[in-house]
Amino acid sequence: MTEKKKLNIDECSIWDDARQMLTKAEQDGVETVWHRLQQQSPHCQFGESGVCCRNCTMGPCRISKKAPLGVCGADADVIVARNFGRFVAGGSAGHSDHGRDCIEALHAVAHGETADYTIKDEAKLLRIAAELGIATEGRQVLDVARDLAAEFFENYGTTKNELSFICRVPEVRRKLWDKLGITPRGMDREIAEMMHRTHMGCDNDAANTMLHAARTCLADGWAGSMIATEISDILFGTPVPRRATVNLGVLREDQVNILVHGHNPIVTEKILEAANDPELIALAKEKGAAGINLVGLCCTGNELMMRHGIPMAGNHLMTELAIITGAAEVIVVDYQCIMPSLVQVGDCYHTKMVTTADKARFTGAEHVKFEMHNGGAQARRVVRMAIERYSLRDPARVRIPCEPVEIVTGFSNEALLEALGGSLTPLIDAIKAGRVRGAVGIVGCNNPKYKHDFCNVNLAKELIRRDILVIATGCVTTAAGKAGLLVPEAIEQAGQGLKEICGALAIPPVIHMGSCVDNSRILQLCGMLADELGVDISDLPVAASSPEWYSEKAAAIGTYAVASGIYTHLGHPPNITGSKIVTDLALSGLDELVGACFVIEPDPFKAAALIDKRITEKRQGLGLSA
Ligand code: XCC
Ligand code: SF4
User: Fold this and answer.
1) I want to staple 110 with a disulfide (CB 3.0 to 4.6 A). Which of 57, 146, 317, 590 is the partner?
2) What secondary structure letter does DSSP report for 623?
């Protein structure tokens, strides 16, 4: 028998709540993502460099010096490009299928097929309809909503051949995409075509496959994700700044704790309503609890926090640890980023996992299917289940490790504009004056290959110190929040210029802009800034970064950022290093084609310097001081 290596818990995470729960996990005999990473290491070199192909049964093939071609004759470049293409097609499918669920909800509301959902932000509905050329004058809101849902559905098909929100892309950029043949058409079309191209015997030109990868991801950013964001605002309200709290301390020892995890607010908005239902609160009290405490995880947590200030228990690597507190009655999930291990971790305590989507079921979990017409009833069922389970909790095994940290959330573009006094001018003036030298979106995930949140936090700190405004989305928001960076007081850690500007506007130097589909808000903001300055997005002193990314979705986001003209830092490369053509394209060739490229750097301090250098160059390009 091989002996298990002991986990060095201090090296797993920068957070005390995480380390305490990891220690508890070992005491309780629970295995976590860190333990499993040890068992999986070292990883397969063929897989890691992207040269393993399983696209047909003449293979599988793996490329080496001894065998430089697959059975069909495909070389490392072709195989790497195909693998990358399918990788980002998976990520784009995730975001855009989430977007489709949102359209179906809007459609159901507009056609009177559900009483469970309504339009909360009519003004935004009308504004977007008008933006997309749908008549609004003198029409009923639901009539407009019907047309808008139909318009959005068209973004997924093949008949329209153009995305609705292409209108938000600066004209120079659109022309560039046209020239390169990467103007995205229908969302589903690009994904299906990627699957087609990467079938044996189709696209066998690595660079050509990579261009289609860019096109697929552009559809994700400017359609799938953007539609998800905009409809979520229409149905559930456009976020405005508000206070909230973060870390495992948001769990309550004396209350029924419900964790929600996943991505789509369509489920969690209903759970929130049920958790606020006086009848159910009374039932919880009858069972001896002081109340019902709903807390978020990952992106659906970001959605709830942005719109309602619901507390956030943690990001990706905290999801198992939240259960290990022993204080969670149920964990309700929809889809994406939900570790299958959560069922087993829950079984070690009294925590029940509840799945809500047919497309994301977990063996051993209880399935409560949410549909348009029954969201409210199903949510009450889930909350009742949580209340019933409260008595199963073993108080001796409960440990809530710390006090919550305060944050400010809710920065939609609408809210940001409002904070700026109604126009982008103050921000542009600050950029021109060099007081805000630029802006960087730090987005994405955790990955147990890194010390949890070390890079996310230190990159943010290092950038604001250099007078670079940081916008955070996805799992980075929780990291920034726990580090105390999402409050106005954090300006003390910023450089002098950023400190003055954020101080005057009463905004934090790190702005919480939402979930991962909300990266579309950043795209829109970049489009507006570029238009305002009369330049292309690639001319702006901006960058993106995903220091600790793990998912196919994060790779899709990085790719649409680059294809949109935004220089993008990643902590580690995707599985492409087995191809020189693909790697060179990612790290430099794309710069010539689309005016932006990827940069890889695991050290957050070095990464900050590289990003700073790029921002300096862009500032000089605009004739501004460094
Ligand atoms: Fe998932 Fe969206 Fe990454 Fe977090 S940041 S680990 S993709 S939950 Ni989106
Ligand atoms: Fe091998 Fe070619 Fe089949 Fe891939 S497509 S498994 S490289 S024969």
Assistant:
1) 146
2) T
Q: Whose CA is nearest to atom 6 of ligand 1?
A: 445
Taking 60 as the threshold, does the pLDDT of residue 196 lie above it?
yes
Q: Which residue has the tokens 């389970």?
A: 389
Residue 427 makes CB contacts below 8 A (sequence gap 6+) with 420, 436, 529
Distance (Å, whole) CA 201 – CA 422: 54
Best of 259, 316, 342 for a ligand 1 pocket test (most atoms within 8 Å of beta carbon):
316
| DSSP strands (E only) in 219-310 | 242-246, 256-261, 292-297
User: What are the two backbone dihedrals, phi and then psi, of residue 341, each rounded to the nearest 5 degrees?
Assistant: -65, -15
Domains in the chain (CATH in brackets) are 76-236 (1.20.1270.30), 242-397 (3.40.50.2030), 410-621 (3.40.50.2030)
Question: 338-364 burial by CB neighbour count: b if 16+ within 10 A, else e?
Answer: bbebbbebbebbbbbbbbbbeebebee
Residue 467 has pLDDT above 70, yes or no: yes
Question: Would the pTM of this model clear 0.85, i.e. be above it?
Answer: yes
Ligand 2 contact via 53 beta carbon (within 6 Å): yes
Is 475's C-beta closer than 6 angstroms to any atom of ligand 1? yes
Residues 287 and 391 sit within 8 Å (Cβ to Cβ): yes
Ligand 2 and 75: CB distance under 6 A: no
User: Could you read off the pLDDT of 206-233 as tens digits, one per residue?
Assistant: 999 999 999 999 999 999 999 999 999 9
Residue 279 CB burial class (10 angstroms; 0-12, 13-18, ≥19)? exposed
**Dihedrals phi, psi of 547, to nearest 5 degrees:** -70, -40
Q: Which residues partner with 473 through β-bridges?
A: 514
Judged against a pLDDT cut of 50, whether residue 1 lies above it is answered with: no
Residue 396: how many other CB atoms lie within 10 Å: 7
